[in-house]
Amino acid sequence: MPTVKQIIDIVDQIAPFSLAESWDNSGLQVGDPRWPVSSILIALDVTDKALSEAEKLGCDMLITHHPLVMSPEKQIDFSRMPGTAILTSARSRIAVVSAHTNLDKAQDGLNDYLAQKLDIFCTDVFFSDAMKNESAGQIQGLGRIGQLGETMTLEQLAYRIKEELGIPRVRIIGNPGNMVSTAALCSGSGGSLTTQFLGSGMDVYITGDLKYHEARDIESHGKSAVDVGHFSSESIAVELLKKRLGQMFDARKYEILINSYDQEQDPFLTI
Q1: Lowest CB count within 10 Å: 45, 209, 210, 268, which one?
Q2: Residue 251 CB-density burial (10 A; 0-12 exposed, 13-18 middle, 19+ buried)
Q3: A GO molecular-function term, please (predicted)?
Q4: What pLDDT does residue 134 have?
Q5: 200-242 confidence digits (pLDDT tens)
Q6: What span, in angstroms and rounded, lies between the C-alpha atoms of 248 and 62?
């Protein structure tokens, strides 16, 4: 039976941990690398509910996109997160592993998967600090830029995104009638890259968590954007990881059951 360490090594092949941002905390969050693994649950976030589901299913590992701990904890209080998750992990021997910005930046990672779903042909990375491995023909880095499958209005693009991601609403910036044929996209919180978008020459920016003044900047430049929300732009990481891990396990003849946690919801409710 493969161990936690061996599963982490496979995740590293899918999304190299060396790609993670310096502030990130991808990799093993809690657990023992020597623990055996026969069943995995994949989720977007490390939550008490996700860990309870892992317990119920008898899983040995919880793999998430968002890390359990992003900054150092001064104390571990078992009555609140992340302490409750650490307690459950230790008590039930459920290792917690996260693939965050490394999955965002990897070739065939989250941004490429998002682009594929939205029928965007990626031509390069978005952020100028991204890494491009020319010798291996790989595109690795934050976000992507590329061509839409066809020229359309901003409004038409918004409806397509809603349909493809299965979400009830998006926020748009710019004239709904603006014609768009090229796009920059960044899964998760992409507001900090607004300046890069405005200098990219792309027609529309697809991301989440855009702030008011960032929206005004985009509007004042006559550009367009679609804010799909942080959750909606990254919840697809669950199906991506299940697909890629399944392929890797099959190649190694690992008989590991992969479960998807399908009860997660956007923490923001519109009433």
Answers
A1: 268
A2: exposed
A3: metal ion binding
A4: 47
A5: 999 999 999 999 999 999 999 999 999 999 999 999 999 999 9
A6: 17
pTM of the complete model beyond 0.70: yes
Q: Whose CA is closest to 48, among 266, 264, 268?
A: 264
Instruction: Report which residue type is found at 247.
Output: Q
User: Are 73 and 25 within one domain?
Assistant: yes
**189 and 116 within one domain:** yes
Which residue segment(s) compose the domain that 137 sits in? Answer: 107-231
- β-bridge partners, 172: 226
Q: Which two tokens stand for residue 20?
A: 């993670």
Q: What is the CA radius of gyration of the chain?
A: 19
Look at the block and give the residue holding tokens 């023909």: 137
121: which strand partners? Answer: 147
Shared domain for 14 and 87, answered yes or no, is yes
Look at the chain and report how many structural domains it folds into: 2
> Are β-strands 257-260 and 204-208 bridged in parallel, bridged antiparallel, or unpaired?
unpaired
| Spatial contact of 24 and 66, defined as CB atoms under 8 Å apart | no
Q: What is the per-residue pLDDT for 135? A: 40
Residue 137: the pLDDT is 60
Q: What distance in Å separates the CA atoms of residue 128 and residue 245, rounded to the nearest whole number?
A: 30
267, part of any domain: no
Residues annotated within a binding site: 65-66, 104, 230, 234
Categorize the per-residue pLDDT at 130 as very low, low, confident or very high, splitting at 50, 70 and 90: very low
Residues 181 and 151 sit within 8 Å (Cβ to Cβ): yes
The dihedrals phi and psi of 170, each to the nearest 5 degrees, come to -135, 165
